[in-house]
């Protein structure tokens, strides 16, 4: 159900997202960014519509990763978790 609603929402907001992307590209070009390529709205819409739809298992994966980060947050590098010396060891 969540995947269906997400896909429906993505289809409904396609034009608005394309406009925001084009506005961002124009702002970057006006600021003197190296990337001077500004796509047309039709190109952006076509690129966004080619994106694959969301699948239910992708949401399960994201939720699982979020829960794992909540249960075992690594404030520092993960290598500190496996450290054998006392200094810098993460419990």
UniProtKB/TrEMBL annotation:
Organism annotation: Phytophthora sojae (strain P6497)
Protein name in UniProt: PiggyBac transposable element-derived protein domain-containing protein
Source domain of life: Eukaryota
């Amino acid at each position: 159900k969540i995947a269906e609603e997400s896909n429906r929402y993505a289809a409904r907001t396609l034009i608005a997202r394309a406009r925001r992307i084009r506005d961002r590209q124009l702002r970057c070009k006006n600021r003197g960014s190296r990337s001077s390529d500004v796509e047309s709205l039709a190109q952006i819409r076509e690129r966004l519509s080619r994106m694959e739809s969301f699948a239910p298992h992708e949401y399960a994966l994201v939720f699982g990763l979020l829960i794992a980060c909540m249960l075992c947050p690594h404030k520092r590098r993960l290598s500190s978790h496996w450290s054998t010396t006392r200094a810098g060891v993460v419990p």
